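Intended use. Records like the one below are meant for learning the mapping from a protein sequence to its folded structure. Do not use them to infer anything beyond what is encoded.
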Amino acid sequence: MTCELRGEFDRCWPWLDVAIARYGRTYEKHHLWQRIVAKQAHFWPGPMCAIVTEFLIYPTGLNRLNFWLRGGDSKEVLTLSDEIEEWAKQQGCHEAIGTGRDGWLAYEPDYEKTSTRRRKILTYDPAVIERFDLEGQADQGRREGSEPRPLCYLPEAEVAIARQLSQEICGSSRSYSRSHHQR
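Structure written out for the chain above:
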């Protein structure tokens, strides 16, 4: 199963990479993979999106599902997020949280804004800080219209290849992801 999961992870990596880059590269691909294999994070691949979640368990008894990373087709992300929330209830989670652009609140009306994230560089170390991509490639620009902008842009040829591979290899990725997730 790990080999199959790794193939899905590699296929979905471009979407997850954009999500990581948006707020600073605190993890690299191999770090994220290690957390998934160690069952410290849950990987949810979709045909055109990917989500990574984790449990946050507090001493007070509060159990949270943290939507750590979400990338790919926005509509598919929202649909898969709903399915993950139902799964999280079955795992004993009291609430779900996530960090992202304020614009997502318009498409997730059951969520409320609870905080603001800020950052200040205290010590400049080029070997570390220059790996962050806070305003450059990760800033994908605004979209016109009423739907959320894509979380990751891929050239049309890559999108077509990803769709075809997903259908050939995985069939329905959602049924695969459910079987992988156990608390």
